[in-house]
Amino acid sequence: MKGTSIKPLLLWSLGILLVGCSRAGRGWEGPTKIAFEETTEAAGIGYEGLSWGLAWGDGNGDGAPDLWSSNHGSHPTLYMNLRNGTFLPVRRPYLQPTPGDSHGVSWADFNGDGTEDLIELTGAQRGVGTGKNHFYVNENNALVDRAEELGLDYPLGRGRMPLWLDWNLDGKLDVLLTNASREEAPNAVFLQNNGKFNRSDTPFGILHSEFAQLTALGGEDRLHVVVHGHKYPQVVYDLSTSPPTDVTDALALPLSYAGDVAFADFDGDGHTDYFVAQGRLGCELRLIDDHFMRAKIVVRHDVRGLTFRCDGPIEIRTRPTYVDWWPVSTVSVGEACIVPETNPFTVNAEEARGRWSESMVEGKEKGLFVLHDPDTGLWSVRMHGGVDEGSIEVRSDAVISEASRIGFHPYSPPRDVLACWRDGKYVDVGQSAGIGNTNSLSVVAGDFDNDMDIDLYVMVSFATEQHPNLFYENRGDGVFRSIVDGGAGGTLAGTSDSCAIADYDGDGFLDIAIGNGREISADGGPLQLFRNRGCDNHWLRLDLRGVRSNPEAIGARVTVKTGGVRQKRVVGAVMHRGAQNERTLHFGLGSHEKADRIHILWPSGKETVMQGVAGDRSLTITE
Fold first, then answer.
1. Residue 246: how many other CB atoms lie within 10 Å
2. Which residues contact 359 (CB under 8 A, 6 or more apart)?
3. 25 assigned to some structural domain
4. Residue 3, number of CB atoms within 10 A of its CB
5. Pair (173, 85) in one structural domain
6. Which domain holds residue 555?
7. pLDDT tens digits for 106-132?
8. What is the DSSP letter of 115?
9. Please, which pLDDT band fits residue 2 given cuts at 50, 70 and 90?
10. pTM over 0.90
11. Is the pLDDT of residue 24 over 70?
12. What is the CATH number of the domain that holds 604?
């Protein structure tokens, strides 16, 4: 890794557990073949700040993946792939964007003209205002916003992530818009008819969700859409019927919290499994060094904060700073209730002199109280509010010590979930498969070493400090070893947000783009690009084009058999929280120079079979 991409080692063990597996793996032979290098600067990628949405797609129809970055709160950027390992950043007037509350994005050729279009969802001022989505239609190599004209603006929706799919099986692409809670604009399916979109008359029945995904679950491998909720999954629909059938209870997936999810056949048994990243950015207090302390505070109609000792003046900064969640007008310093003029502000012990009393919050909707107790010599900073969050940073030339929490407990990350299909049901086998408790916030699955099994890349962060991102390398049967030195550890700055994979340089190995600006209560981090250095394994990449089916062939199931190993993919299963992977299907072939057999089940029901297909190339297959 280069420069700022190195992050401190995790403070807990990421040991390998090789017990409890039901199938013999191909095993690991020597050192890992997963090796990446950061190419952000060399590739022409340059952004630092809040992130949210990343999406790989082909914006100009040249067959090379371009990268869209939403740049939350700023202008989005389209990085056009120049097909030489570098990108050209494009903003206005090509895109005609306006800065705003940009969230999730997704590319798709919705109208079958051979070029991909892009929908970008926006928030709505935390549910009290409006914010129109953007739908950039590709017209003569210019992306023109047609959201309002085509019926996808949904201005009251607190947009989170879109999902392209054929909801009513008519061969046209529809789109599911997931939204944060708002009674007037819940999650909704917009059906395409004559090139325009209308909200389905059938209620989707979901008020709040962060994202939805396509996959093929269970023993019959039918196509499903799985919708995120506070308990994951919130609902699962079988898309083989029209209208789709709610099969949530029938599948009985293990319930858990989900920050992000990756679907794949991890153990090689021909059935889809899934990995759930359970990391959170909750209340946390961390003494970064002797002169700097950071706390993330979430209040729920209560008072929470921190105490510490410091024998000199202190500087306090509250975040977020770009919205007035904690303006200086809400700050009260000492018994004199001094209101600072700026953020950050400096205060000494005499100015902050005072003892805490619950009466201080009476009659106040929200407030931040800074006190120095003359009896104990301790400082305290307390937040009071309804349902709010914020970050407190304390700096001093004097030593800061004895830091402790008020009203919240230390955060302990849960172990992530690996649910595999066992005897007709899904079972969490994560502990026996080597999955740890890393506080992973984003995850993506792919064959990063082209050895014919699916590995994982997880982004790891806490609210007050970044940690190294890591790989889980699959040995072939769904048992993993952690790789913390794979070259894509990520930056020290910001907070891990989302990751998206594509083969941007066309060498047959999956590369990774990551955003590091998730936490609005902290500084945003850089957008980073990591190139897969590759190895001697072979590969095959497939692009499908529908004729009777929808233009992108979304929902097609593809099986590739090579040397006795069967790999399965679903076209369009590229979405996860905050990101879209490249839609091209990627298959590692290991030491084999060709795929023995390819079977395609198109959404229309048509089947295609190909034998002895040479590898190390990309193929376009038309229905």
1. 12
2. none
3. no
4. 10
5. yes
6. 538-622
7. 999 999 999 999 999 998 877 778 889
8. S
9. very low
10. yes
11. no
12. 2.60.40.10
Quickly count: other Cβ atoms within 10 Å of residue 338's Cβ. 15
* 50 secondary structure, DSSP code: -
- pLDDT of res. 209: 94
End-to-end CA distance of the chain: 43
CA distance 323 to 226: 33
Task: State how far Cα 101 lies from the chain centre.
Answer: 17
| Structure token digits, residue 13 | 């063990």
- pLDDT tens-digit series, residues 209-224: 999 999 999 988 899 9
CATH number at residue 182: 2.130.10.130
Q: Measure the CA–CA gap between 13 and 437, rounded to whole angstroms.
A: 9
Tell me, yes or no, whether 230 and 97 share the same domain.
Answer: yes
Decide if 531 contacts 70 (C-beta within 8 A): no
Q: Are residues 43 and 153 in the same domain?
A: yes
Report the DSSP pairing between strands 400-406 and 292-310. Answer: antiparallel
Domain count along the chain: 3
Interatomic CA distance for residues 138 and 103, integer angstroms = 20
SS (H, E, C) 453-489: CCEEEEEEECCCCECCCEEEEECCCCCEEEECCCCCC
Number of H helices, E strands in the chain: 2, 47
Q: Which amino acid is at 482?
A: S
How many beta carbons lie within 10 A of that of residue 71, not counting itself?
24
Separation CA 86–CA 44 (nearest Å)? 6
Asked if residue 430 and residue 384 are part of one domain, the reply reads no
Contact (CB, 8 A) for 379 and 310: yes
Q: What does the alpha-carbon distance between residue 192 and residue 200 come to, in Å, rounded to a whole number?
A: 10
- 108 and 192 housed in the same domain: yes
| Secondary structure (DSSP) of 138-153 | EETTEEEE-HHHHT--
In-domain check, residue 21:
no
Q: Are residues 396 and 418 in the same domain?
A: no
8 A C-beta contact, residue 178 and residue 147: no
Q: Are 617 and 589 in contact (CB under 8 A)?
A: no
Predicted local distance difference test score (pLDDT) of residue 21: 33
Final residue in a domain of this structure, among 377, 406, 435? 406
Task: Convert the pLDDT of each residue in 560-600 to its tens digit.
Answer: 999 999 999 999 999 999 999 999 999 999 999 999 999 99
Pairing of strands 174-180, 188-193: antiparallel
Which two structure tokens, joined as six digits, stand for 463?
Answer: 């609210």
Residue 511: helix, strand or coil by DSSP? Answer: strand
Question: Of 435, 408, 105, whose CA–CA distance to 256 is shortest?
Answer: 435
Quote the CA–CA distance of 285 and 304 in Å, as a whole number: 11
- Residue holding tokens 């910001």? 494
d(CA 151, CA 157): 13
Pair 235, 217: CB distance under 8 Å: no
Taking a C-beta distance cutoff of 8 angstroms, is the pair 622, 616 a contact?
no
Min mean pLDDT across 16-25, 155-164, 387-396 is at 16-25
Using pLDDT thresholds of 50, 70 and 90, give the confidence band for residue 98: low
φ/ψ of residue 147, rounded to 5: -60, -50
Backbone angles phi, psi at 3, to 5 degrees: 45, -120
Query: What Rg value do the Cα atoms of the chain yield, rounded?
Result: 25
Same domain, 518 and 560: no
List of residues 6+ apart from 140 with CB closer than 8 A: none
Query: 225 and 115, same structural domain?
Result: yes
